[in-house]
Structures are given as structure tokens and as C-alpha cells.
Write a sequence for this structure.
């Protein structure tokens, strides 16, 4: 972190920094006196198309808990299938890349909505985020969705792996183990203290 700040401070002033996080924009502008542009996240959209999709799927959110499963790369398909079969009373929004949409992955479940992008409106309506990530890949990486979930004050459900153990220490009120009952997880409220 300090190394990155050091680099940013010593970059030429003519560089324009791009961010899709408003707090990051404010920090760069006020604390580091940098020119910054706020851009849309490539897979999170907040436009008329997204709002139309939300209206189209309005009934999907009524009466049931909803969990987001963002899957772009390096996800454990068996973990997702186990969750979908176990919790048929919960709705799941599964974020897939186009190649997996074409393969119609997870299409045969009535309690799933598969999308290639998601709007902030959808994220605000979900109860939790489940990240079925591969421990071999995320042993030395972070998940942007983990921090997105925390930013939206959502509970993030992880399998018992290295990332879970590391992040549980840092964010004990936001990170929960996938061995817990997802129905109970959906009813929990985050203690911000």
C-alpha cells in the first residue's frame, strides 16, 4: 500500500487516474492532488438497460431471499451446483461470462437468473454474495467481488479456504463460511462495529 502511494505521488501530474470507486476518486483528488475520472465498472452497469432488466425481473425478487454468485473466471462449478440443489427456496443471480451463457450453464434451475452483467440496482436488492472461488488461484490474489460486497454492506459467503481465513480476520462481520445455512445467512444483518 505504501509503495503504491509512493509511486502515485511520484508520477507526472499530467497523468489522469481512472477509478470506478467514488471513495478512491475523492482520496486521489483531495489527499494526493491528482486528476481523477470516475468510470463505470466493466461488469456493473447503471443505465436504462439495467433498469429495464430490473423491471422485467421484478417478480424474481418478491418473497424469496436472493444471493448473487458472480462467476467470471476460476470458479468451482460443483460448489455452485451443490448450493443450487440444496437451497431451492432461495433465488440466485448468477453472473456469467458470455461463453458460459452460450453453454447455458445453470439454465435448468428455476430459482436462478443468469446474466452477463449486473446493475447496482440488482446488488442493492440481494441479501448476500456467494463466491465459490478456486483456492489454488485465490491463494495469492484477492476477489474484487469480496470488496464490492463489503462496499454494498452485503454478507460475503466463502468456502473454507485460504481467502476465507485471511479475510474473516479482517472483516469478521461481513465474511461467513459456506458451511453455514444460507437461509439463516440471508436473515442476518451486518454489525458495523
Amino acid at each position: 500500500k505504501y509503495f503504491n502511494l509512493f509511486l502515485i505521488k511520484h508520477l507526472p501530474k499530467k497523468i489522469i487516474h481512472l477509478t470506478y470507486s467514488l471513495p478512491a476518486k475523492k482520496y486521489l483528488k483531495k489527499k494526493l492532488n491528482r486528476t481523477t475520472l470516475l468510470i463505470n465498472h466493466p461488469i456493473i452497469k447503471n443505465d436504462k438497460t439495467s433498469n429495464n432488466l430490473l423491471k422485467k425481473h421484478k417478480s424474481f425478487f418478491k418473497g424469496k431471499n436472493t444471493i448473487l454468485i458472480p462467476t467470471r473466471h476460476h470458479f468451482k462449478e460443483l460448489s455452485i451446483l451443490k448450493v443450487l440443489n440444496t437451497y431451492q427456496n432461495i433465488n440466485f443471480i448468477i453472473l456469467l461470462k458470455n461463453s458460459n451463457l452460450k453453454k447455458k450453464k445453470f439454465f435448468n434451475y428455476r430459482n436462478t437468473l443468469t446474466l452477463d452483467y449486473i446493475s447496482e440496482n440488482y446488488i442493492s436488492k440481494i441479501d448476500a454474495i456467494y463466491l465459490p472461488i478456486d483456492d489454488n488461484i485465490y491463494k495469492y490474489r484477492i476477489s474484487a467481488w469480496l470488496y464490492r460486497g463489503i462496499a454494498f454492506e452485503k454478507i460475503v459467503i466463502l468456502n473454507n479456504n485460504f481467502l476465507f481465513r485471511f479475510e474473516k480476520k479482517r472483516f469478521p462481520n461481513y465474511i461467513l463460511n459456506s458451511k453455514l445455512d444460507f437461509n439463516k445467512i440471508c436473515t442476518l444483518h451486518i454489525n458495523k462495529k
Summary: DSSP finds ten helices and ten strands in the chain. The first helix runs from residue 2 to 9.
